[in-house]
Amino acid sequence: MKQTTPTILMIEPTGFGFNPEAAATNSFQRELQDFTPGQVQDIALLEFRNAVAELRNLGVEVITMRDPENAGTPDSVFPNNWFSTHAEGQLVTYPMASPSRRNERRQQVLEQIKEACRCGEHVRLEFFEDQETPVFLEGTGSMVLDRVNKIAYAAVSPRTNADVLQQFCDKLGYQAVTFKAYGAAGELIYHTNVMMCVGDTFAVVALDTVDEQDREKLRTSLTDNGKEIIEISKEQTYQHFAGNMLQVENQQGERILVMSKAAYESLTPQQLEQMQAHNEHILYLPIHMIEKAGGGSIRCMIAELFRKR
Q1: Contact, 304 vs 139, CB < 8 A?
Q2: NCBIfam families of this UniProt entry (predicted)?
Q3: Which residues contact 154 (CB under 8 A, 6 or more apart)?
Q4: What is the pLDDT of residue 262?
Q5: Is 1 among the domain residues?
C-alpha cells in the first residue's frame, strides 16, 4: 500500500468561472468584477496548461480530458471532489452539494478512469443526493486520506456528512477521524483539504483552525501513525491556500509536494525546510485566477489514479 501515485487525471476547463451555487458554502470563492467571464476562462486555461506542463516536466504521468463546451460545469477543473480511485481496485463516486457539479460525472470520464486504473468495483455513493434530506461527501476534498494506515480525516461541514463518511469507511475498510474546523468568519470549513495534507511521512495541518476539543485527537492520530506534523497558520490557510497541497511521485519514484505559488510564498523558512526533508521536489504553480474565482487550489485540480495492484 502506498500513499502516493505517479499517475493523475486533470480536467481542462472550457467554462471555468465563479459558481454562485458553490459559493453558498465556500467562503474562499470570489466573484471578480474586473474580469469578463471570457477573461476568467482564458486565464484559468493558461494556468491549467502550465500546471500540466510543469508536472510532466518533473516526470509525473498526467492524463488530461477536456470538459465539453457549454457543459455548464464551472468547477470541472476540480475533479478530485467527485471521484477517487484506490489500489485495491475500487472507483468511488460521491454525492455533490452543487447540482451543477453532478454533471461532471460523465460516463466518458468514468470509462477512461476504469481503463487507466483497472478498477474492478464501482462504489456509488451519489444516491445520498436523492434522499429526502440530501447529504454530501465531496471526495478527497471532504476527506484527506492516510491510505497506508486506512484513516479518513474529515472536517464535518455542510459538504462533509458523517453518515456518508461512515458508508465510505465501511465499504473501503477505513477508520474515520472527524473534527470541526473553522473558517475566517467562524463558519465550518467546507473541505478538509483546505486545511490539511497528509503525505507518506508528514502532515501539513492548520491546527489553529481546529476546534479546541478536537485538536489533541487529530494531533495524536497523526503522530501515532508516523506523521511528522508541519503546522501552518490560520492566515496561511485562509489567505494563501497553504493547506491545499498534495504529495505525488514521478516515474523515478521521487516524491513531489505540489502546491500553489501563493501557498509557497506564504511559507516560513522553517516550514519549507521541514517539507523539503520529506520530498525530493517542491513544485509550486501560479494558479491565482483558479484560486480566486474557483475557491480551490492545486490539490483540488489533481485526481489521483491508483492502479489496481
Answers
A1: no
A2: citrull_CtlX
A3: 142, 143, 144, 160, 162, 165, 176, 177, 178, 179, 192
A4: 97
A5: no
The span from the CA of 28 to the CA of 296, in Å, is: 7
Give dist(CA 141, CA 207) in Å, integer.
Answer: 17
Task: Judge whether residue 269 has pLDDT over 90.
Answer: yes
Report the alpha-carbon distance of residue 72 to residue 14 in Å, rounded: 9
CA-CA distances (angstroms) from residue 4 to 7, 155, 177, 281, 296?
A: 9, 22, 20, 14, 21
Tell me how many domains the chain contains: 1
Rounded CA-CA distance 86/84 in Å is: 7
CA distance 156 to 161: 6
Predicted confidence (pLDDT) at residue 24 exceeds the cutoff of 70: no
Residue in the structure block whose three cell numbers are 465531496 = 138
pTM of this prediction? 0.94
Is 2 domain-assigned? no
Q: How many residues does the chain have?
A: 309
Answer whether residue 57 is part of any domain. Answer: yes
91-130 per-position pLDDT tens digit: 999 999 999 899 999 999 999 999 999 999 999 999 999 9
Q: d(Cα 50, Cα 61) in Å, to the nearest integer?
A: 15
Q: What was the pLDDT predicted at 38?
A: 84
